[in-house]
């Protein structure tokens, strides 16, 4: 789940992202250039930005949780059952720590580059500036791959849940979920989509509490004794995909006016709640459903399917949990991909195509020209051109048709997609790229006396 991930493509360096700018303007927030490093807490667009409070931080925490929460949460007992509760918890803790470190690096990168450019900057645009054209192509390709694999998993799980309820084939269930959510995302205003997403994220949290309330009396805690550490490493890719939330960090930076202390606090709180919830559900799932090793001739069964077949309150809770999780994830992925494609093919303005390169001197950085200040405050997304309809069709195909084609092949696509996403796109996009970008930008370099933010390395 979660709102638009601010991905954009630009032939120029450090160009403000349309998605980010729109979010900043709609929230009354903005960016202004600052000579200080990323620790500075200067708002980025306009000096009249509303002061932030605890409510804003709470909303940002919700974004972090809503992004990580999805149908993958339902896959947790199936994924962790073979290794046991203790090894699974250890792998989750290590994966969580890795993603937390990467998310803090991404926050540093976004804040540093946005303050240097004087306007919100997208992750893909920073990749273009720091890693070159090929690097930007790789980052964008990894992002699209990750989003499409995520949608494959969600459509597959939705199809497996809808098919028995509606009495239709599995492929029809996948198609219904994909088309309904795809058309809704395309037609509904952004404000409506965001409200729906927030509501279902809240519903998910309520269902999680209900799940624990119903599941605790059914647990057999002696099942937690079983462990198999030899399978722990095979669990890592799936854990990375299930726990990932780094794609929402640029949006959090914008919503919190690039105030790095607030951003770090929000990430830590959101990630902490996420880890607690996932470890607790993994332990409870293992305690509720008995695990029969495949070596004994048993066919490995999804614990969620077993719980759904029991009937009663547990079935209703699992169904509600699955509905909220799938809807939030599909909405977030659809919006992120549509924003990517709309920004990829839209026409560039003269101001956008000019490089927002670092200032030649500290004096120039301290005294930006009136024209640049005026332009930075008045940037607005360009009006749709004549090819808008074709762009919309392309986005619909990428967000709905292609993932649906893969999801319809088999219900097992759900677990396969989760493992594949963690093994490649997540590891590369959020494991290798952020540190390289931070090094190239010189984010953590200490400026010499009398100087402002350090300039990027070449």
From TrEMBL:
**In terms of one coarse class, where is the protein primarily found?**
membrane
Which InterPro entries does the entry link to?
A: Amino_acid_transport_2
| Region described as Disordered: spans on this chain | 352-379
Pfam families for the chain: Trp_Tyr_perm (PF03222)
Q: Which keywords describe this protein according to UniProt?
A: Cell inner membrane, Cell membrane, Membrane, Transmembrane, Transmembrane helix, Transport
Tagged with keyword Membrane: yes
Please give a single GO biological process term from the UniProt record: amino acid transmembrane transport
Q: How does it sit in the membrane?
A: Multi-pass membrane protein
Membrane-spanning ranges: 60-78, 90-114, 135-155, 161-184, 196-219, 239-256, 268-293, 313-337, 392-407
UniProt KW Transmembrane keyword: yes
User: What are the Low complexity biased-composition ranges?
Assistant: 354-371
**Where in or outside the cell?**
Cell inner membrane
Instruction: Provide GO CC annotations from the record.
Output: plasma membrane
| The protein's name | Amino acid transporter transmembrane domain-containing protein
Q: Which organism is this entry from? A: Eutreptiella gymnastica
